[in-house]
Amino acid sequence: MAGVDIVIEEKKDDAIDRQKICPFLLRVFVSSGGQHHKPSDYMKGNTPQNELQIYTWRDATLHELTQLVKEVNPEARRKGTKFSFASVYPDMRQPLYRVREIGSTMTGVKGPDDVKTLGLLRLNIGDYLDIAITPPDSWNSVKRGYSNNYNTNNYNANNYNANNYNTNNYNMNNNYNNRSRPY
């Protein structure tokens, strides 16, 4: 048999040119009690009171969103403040909303979720983002099991390449992935 050349192409995520691509409106609801809003808070056209409207792109990271929230919320700037992110989306089979945890960040500490993008987390345009802010003095990282997530010895941001992140290894909620959108 004649020589057969095999060419393997690396698939890269499409980089978004923020100068050319229009941002979308992301409605963010912040709670400072450390708990996410209940799905019933979003029913019948209602939304929680504490809303931020952020114009952003699908390549925005959770770290970027953390920085934007810290700009308008002085209490969230303290080192050790935890930001827990959840996607709030309509259930297409029933007239209610679903809440799905998508990651967490911490002020002053690098973590694995800092570099996750909205696109990677499959946040759709029109979904809400719910952020529960927990001050550093109201939670114990070791007691709640967060110490491994924020151990900077196990995570080196300089060695992480967001373009090579394998989305097949990212475990998503099957109900979220399989939901059909009317648009």
From TrEMBL:
Record keywords: Repressor, Transcription, Transcription regulation
GO cellular component: nucleus
UniProt superkingdom: Eukaryota
GO molecular function annotations of the record: transcription corepressor activity
Family of this protein: Belongs to the SAP18 family.
Name of the featured protein: 18 kDa Sin3-associated polypeptide
